[in-house]
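User: Modeling request: complex.
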Amino acid sequence: MTLTHATEATATTDAPSRRAQAFRPGVGGWIGRAVLWAAVAWLVLVFPLGRPGFEVQIYATAVCYGMVALSLNVLLGYVGQISLGHQAFVGIGAFTSAYMMTVQGQSFWVGVVVAALVGGGQALILGGTSLRITGLYFALVTLSYGLVAEQNVFQIQELTGGGQGQPAPKPDLFDTDWRYYYLCLGFLALVLYVDRRLMKSKGGRALLALRENPRVAATFGVNVRIATLFAFVVSGAIAGLAGALIASNDTFVSPEVWNFQLALVFVIMTVVGGLRSRAGAVIGGAFFALLPFLITKIPLLLRDVWGVRSVFNVIAEAWNWGSRKLPNELTPELAPLVLGPLLLLLTLTKTPGGIGQQIRPIQRWMFGKKFDLHDHGPKEVQITDVRA
Amino acid sequence: MTETTTTDEGGVPDIPARPPSRGFLEERRDLALGLGLALAIVVVIVATGEKQALVIGTISGAAYGLVAIGLVLIYKSSGVFNFAQGEFGTVALFALYLLHFHVPYGIAVIGALVVALLMGLLVERLIIRPLFTAPRVILLVATAGVALLTIGIELWFGGTLGKNVNRALPELNRMTIFGLQISDQRLLLIGTLAVLALLLGLFFSRTNLGLAIIGASQEPTATELVGISVRRLSSFTWAMSAVLGGLAAILAVPETGSFTPGVMTSSYLIPAFTAAVLGGMTSLPGAFLGGVLIGVIQSIATSGAVFDDIPGTPSTLLVFIVLVLVLVIRPQGLLGKKA
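Assistant: Request completed. Predicted assembly structure:
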């Protein structure tokens, strides 16, 4: 996840960061950093090799959700516009790719490119017609658009293959779960790189200025509407790409999953992950994708690996006892719906920067900076700056 | 966007600069526009012989209007788009469902409304108050989170199967008005809405409390300065609109058969929001009129042969188009005032 440089977006040449660059870690410091890097690399690259295929498929979904979170981060984090209909962009991307492969007989790569183009195109049309609409009203329009996708677009028989869904095969070279997982990682790295380069470009800096104060940005020659539209198109294209990858990961796309609840989960995972923090967004997305899996597996997994019987048995028994008392068990599918909003409300009221803010000191340290527990990044990382 | 302010408390879409004060005539012109539009739709419907659609639409629109009034109340008092408004209704339905096995229906309805009221107070206390000074978009995300949490808990405890709740009026009586069959519960719904709209209109123009709420929405600081607690008013408004949401659900949903978790959010929230936007987002009569218009548009989309080619549910698409058109062409809505 942290393969590429993650939070260097705000590397302006202000005094504190120059002081930080002058710092050189000692030998022990380098070893410590190398160990942590190796641990992260092991977790992301090596660990899935020893796991069963269905589990690796979940990890690949986590990588794709990380991409979705990055896509929303462009919109919500960089421009301060909220999309409550992002499931439409991801879902249409998934169906486009599946349609290109199954009905049109094209290759996976064509499907992925077309899905990204369709995602960007949708954003261009939706953003182009509703450019004047910002803030709360934009959220309303996107929510309504998500509903249109759910109830109109996903009902088109040709596109979705009717009620039974559309098959989406994996590409030839990456036909096993493990290989496909690495393909998804590659795409994630690509998206991270593009995101980073974009934010370094003139357009990216215009976006940051625009988010801080649109009027000041306009005074300095930023075309506010074009910049906003640009961010929306980038966000839509990334969402379409993620959708295409999710489609082939499941080898099958069904219309029912792209509902309004999913759109809210997407927003929640981005906010909990941390706005304007690439690493945070990816971790947030991956966490929410893994949540249904984790909630069933964690007590068992830890018991198997370390033999920690006592503590986790107690928890597992308490859980079982609890579920006997309840009318229904908290099923894995429901876990994000119940736990997600709780995490969101906790994030909003306690740590506005989300996971990204919390891990920032470690992240800086890993890139050779001095460890500073109170380094929560520049002030503008705070989510409370998102403008209505 | 460039030429107007984007301060946090606004939330109104950016509108090209217009004269700040609007005269008496212009005020009336808006009303005339709204009524003219309504009349045009009536004429079209009568001409195409879709009379049943008009009546059905008006009545289902009444439910949208009731939810929309709750949305407008909260928007007026705290400047928040309350995405949990639909769930106030679903929670009331669940409470009604659980209660009506044990107690008489009337008491169960009161119990359900009390549950909705408590939920409104709880949301205000736990979510809105800690974020009182936060930007409005954050509050929007928070209320959407509340909606999702409520749906999750409903699915957890209630399962995905539909549940049946009795109608308020036990025996189904159909009345014939203008040659159309209307069930009595639907008449009750539209009657309730009309009475409530009237009472709310009087409340906001005649009573001290109503005026205080309007004042707090326009100038919170000044309202505090004259000795009114803005926070207490906020609790009151949230409780009030939660009860309205609950009432809308109790009256409208049993008529359409069984209900599932999240029913008010999935099928009432967006039409109600569109109705509120159509009415100007700050106007109570506007929300009422908008609700009826949206209801009629939806019911034409369902019955009109022209829309058969649209896949899925044509009314969703139509509501979306209306929403975008209103926001692009006339962001202040039919009866809205520029604050």
